[in-house]
Write a structure and sequence with these properties.
The complex is a heterodimer of chains A (111) and B (110). Chain A is mainly β and 111 residues long. Helix content of chain A is 0%, strand content 51%. The N and C termini of chain B lie far apart (40 Å). The chains are: A mainly beta (111), B mainly beta (110).
């Protein structure tokens, strides 16, 4: 069984550009969450989606948006990129509330 | 506010036992999870405690005391491959979002 997959693995953008990150959850998982992990820190919650509806949002500006598709895959969009958006973006899928399965992440560098 | 505190670094030798503590201050607490993350990799789930007490999974055990807002991860028979960052994370509220601590970097020495 495939785990959580994310694309692309690495991305380099310049300030002001926008980016779209993609995530495919484990088959059968209907919940997808997005996290941002800056070097040396723990992951920070950005969004959670369940059955295509937003269930939670972290303390991130409106430049960050996401959606979930009928097949439960998800996209995270970030507009007007800032240098501080450089981070590892992690997607996690889950069945229940006790365990989340993380994908390998997308390493975003903003120059 | 919500916060989780862990030691920033721990060093131990192969074969030893190490305990990584976590204290938390959150609202809507449902449970405490532990994740392992190797450098550049994805966090991988280790354990989850919703109730007080000890949960054992192989060489890893995790403990929770809800009244003390405290938990720990115990790693036994340490191996070199256990060198990694370990995060405690609290889940709570209407979603199952995780609030992570800042992580403990474990260095296992021969």
């Amino acid at each position: 069984d495939a785990g959580v997959t994310q694309s692309p693995t690495h991305l380099i953008k310049t300030r002001g550009q926008h980016v779209t990150l993609r995530c495919s959850p484990i088959s059968g998982h209907k919940s997808v969450s997005w996290y941002q992990q800056v070097l040396g820190q723990g992951p920070q919650f950005i969004f959670q989606y369940y059955e295509k509806e937003e269930r939670g949002r972290g303390n991130f500006p409106d430049r960050f948006s996401a959606r979930q598709f009928p097949n439960y895959s998800s996209e995270l969009n970030v507009n007007a990129l800032l240098l501080g958006d450089s981070a590892l973006y992690l997607c996690a899928s889950s069945l229940a509330s006790d365990e989340q399965f993380f994908g390998p992440g997308t390493r975003l560098t903003v120059l | 506010g919500q916060s989780l505190e862990q030691p920033s670094e721990v060093t131990a030798v192969e074969g030893a036992i190490v305990q990584i503590n976590c204290t938390y201050q959150t609202s809507g607490f449902y449970g405490l999870s532990w994740y392992q993350q190797h450098d550049g990799g994805a966090p991988t789930f280790l354990s989850y405690n919703a109730l007080d007490g000890l949960e054992e999974t192989g060489r890893f055990s995790s403990f929770l005391s809800r009244s003390d807002s405290y938990g720990y991860l115990l790693l036994q028979e340490l191996q070199m491959k256990d060198s990694a960052s370990y995060f405690c994370a609290v889940s709570g509220g209407a979603t199952n979002k995780l609030i992570f601590g800042t992580g403990t970097l474990l260095a296992v020495q021969p």
